[in-house]
Automatic annotation (TrEMBL):
It holds the Pfam family Ribosomal_S16. The gene is rps16. Belongs to the bacterial ribosomal protein bS16 family. Keywords: Chloroplast, Plastid, Ribonucleoprotein, Ribosomal protein. This is Small ribosomal subunit protein bS16c.
């Protein structure tokens, strides 16, 4: 199953995350199928690629709870 989830990068105590589409069986920081955006929880900054995200959701990819909340804030589901 394809999941849209967060992939951590950044240094200690300063996390940043990439929003990626990847197989649910792959480790958190493993190889991603596609990079869909960026999220920084410290500044609440997000950069999203709307078209690829909508395409993946229509193909049946499931967002994790945190990613779903980010998408609701960005009004992704209203554009579908």
């Amino acid at each position: 199953m394809i999941k849209i989830r967060l992939k951590r990068y950044g240094r200690k105590q300063r996390p940043s995350y990439r929003i990626v589409a990847m197989d649910s069986r792959v480790k958190r920081d493993g190889k991603a199928i596609e990079e869909l955006g960026f999220y920084n929880p410290l500044t609440d900054e997000t950069h999203l690629k709307f078209e690829p995200i909508i395409k993946r959701l229509k193909q049946g990819a499931q967002p994790t709870e945190t990613v779903h909340n980010i998408f609701v804030k960005a009004k992704i589901f209203e554009q579908m």
